[in-house]
Queue: 2 jobs
Job 1
Amino acid sequence: MKICDYIDEKLIFFLEETTKEEVLRTLVNATIQEKKLPDGEKFFRAISEREKIVSTGIGMGVAIPHAKLSTYDNFFVTVGILSKGVDWQALDRAPVRLIFLIGGPDDKQTEYLQILSSLTMVLRDEGLRKNLMQASNKEEVFDLFQAL
C-alpha cells in the first residue's frame, strides 16, 4: 500500500487559518465540497471529539486528525499546508504546519491503521516535510507523494 493511493490532488489545500478549529473546519468543509461527503457535520464533530480526547499533533510540525463513519465507503486523505504554524497541543509542543485529515469507513480497521502507519513513516523524512512546506502548488505536493 502506498500513501499516494489515498491522496487526491483536489484535496490539497494551502491555508492561512490561525487556529486549530479554523483549520479543521476549513479542511472538513473543503473535503465535503470536493468529495460530496454525506454527514459532513457529523464528520466534523467526530474529528473535533477526537481532538478533545488527545491531540493528533504527532510532532515535527505535523497533525493527523482522523475519524471513521459508517456512511463512508472509502478512505481519503485531505492535505492542508499552513503558511504559519498553528498551536495544536502537539506532543513536542511545536506549531503545526502540515495537516493530514483522514476519513473513511468504520469497518475497515486494518486499512485505517495501515494508512496511519504509512503516513507517519513517510513524514519522518525531514526533507519531505520541508519540501511540502515549501511547495507552491497542489501539483508539487502531489508529485512529492507520487515519488515515494
Note: The two ends are 11 Å apart (CA to CA).
Job 2
Amino acid sequence: MSESTRQRMWLVAVLVLSAVVVWQFVAMQGLREDRDTARADAERMRVESERLRAIPRQRAEMVEAGRWLHQYYQSEEGLRRPAGLWFNDQPDFEGIGAWLLDVYLSARIEGASEEEARQRVIDQIQQTEEWRQGHPGQ
C-alpha cells in the first residue's frame, strides 16, 4: 500500500472518529439536560408529595374552613344567606365543593396560608352573580 493511500485511510479514520466524538458530545449534552430536568421534576414532585401527605392531618383546618365559609355565607359581606351553607333544606354541596375543595384546598396545596386561601375564596365568591345581586353597585 502506498504512503498516500495510508494517509488517506488515516485521514478517513480520524474524520470518522471525530464525527463519533462530536455525536457523543451532543448526545451527552442532551443527557445532561434530561438529567437536570428529571432532578427538577423529582424535587417538584417531592414537594408536592409532602403537601399532599399533609392533607389528612388538616382535618381540623378543613372543619374550621367549613365553619368560616358557613359564616361568610351568612354575613353582610358574603352572600347574606340566613341559613349559610344550607340551601333548599340541604347542605349546599355545590358551594362546599367549589369553595372548600376547588379553591381553598387547592390554594393550601399550592402553599398559600389559611388567610390567603380564604381571601381567594372571597375574591371568587365576589365574582358570582349571587354575590353581585346581593351587593348592587359594588
Note: The CA atoms of residues 29 and 134 lie 60 Å apart.
